[in-house]
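To whoever is on call:

I kicked off a structure prediction for a single chain this morning and the downstream step that reads the tokens threw a length-mismatch warning. I double-checked the sequence; it's 135 residues and nothing unusual in it as far as I can see. Pasting both halves so you can look.
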Amino acid sequence: MGRLKESIAWPYAQDRTAQVNQYLADGWSRHHKDRIYRPPITKYMLVGDRVEEIKEVVVHEFSMGDVEDPDLYAAQPLHEWEKSEKGQWIMKNACDTPTWHRMADQVTYGYRYRITAKLMGPALTEWLLRYGNER
């Protein structure tokens, strides 16, 4: 008898399609958060007697396979990037020393390396005009 009541109640049940879709979308974005474009992080820094806006931008990224010591294998591409034209420009114009970040790559079961730098004012504008979103 319980099954009959459920089948009769089904057409009158509340439609939860929107909530289910939102739940699935939230789960997808949590799982794929490193694949989603994020605008540069904005911070502020005191320079002399004024406050300057600083943005942290991704200036280079590359993938690495599943190796025993990924940082050791990543040293060569990191060094090559640092000696390139883009790397030299960033090393000269960044507010702080650029930093590299290692993340697990879910697709290839390897690693993804990302170099970020803090830029402000004219240096940020020049970087965006010269290189834009190419990494």
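Update from on-call: the warning came from a stale cache, not from the record. Cleared it. Sanity check on the structure: Confidence is low (pLDDT under 50) at residues 1-8.
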